[in-house]
Every structure is written in structure tokens, then in C-alpha cells.
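Researcher: I'm preparing a figure for a lab meeting and need a structural model of a single chain. I don't have an experimental structure, so a prediction will have to do for now. The sequence is pasted below. Please return the structure as C-alpha cells so I can convert it later.
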Amino acid sequence: MNQSEELTKLIREEIIKTKQRVKEYGELSQPISPENSIGRVSRMDSINNKSVVEAALREAESKLAGLKYALSRVDNPDFGICLRCQKPIPPKRLLLMPQSRYCVHCAQ
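Model: Understood. Here is the structure written out cell by cell.
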């Protein structure tokens, strides 16, 4: 298996995991019904937790979009090559940050 095929496999696996996270966060970020008889403090905690989950949902959706974009470009000869130093970007970096155009060293 060449590097492109391996990276494609890893990206597809990460897409599946990220879709699952998006689904879970979507379910957790449902509106808090005012007729639920929870205390005022508990309601405030629920609202705060909902904000945290919504932020995680946005981040997961963004990652999913980046992974899909990376998957569409994985067969491009310049995919995974740092724009600055022209060295390969580590596959794990591409999975974490699929929109990466620079290796860790050049990104700093």
C-alpha cells in the first residue's frame, strides 16, 4: 500500500469517527425545554454545557469539512507537501488538521 492509499484509508476512518461525533454533539445540543422542572442553578449549568457542546459541534463540523476536502485532494501530487520547505507533511498532522498546508516546523 503506497502512502496515498494509506492516507486515503486513514482519512476515511477519521471521517467516520468525526461524523459520529457530529451526530452525538448534535443530539446533545438540543434546546433545553423551559417546562422541565429543574432548578435555576441546574438550568444555568445545562445552558452553559449546551454552549460548550455547540462549540465542540462547530469544531467537529469544520474538521469534517476539512477531511472531506483532504480526501478530494489526496491523489493530487502536491497534496501533503509543505508549501514552504517542500517536505512531506506528517500524515498524523493531516488527520488532525486536514487543511494544513505547512509542516509543523514551517507553520510556527
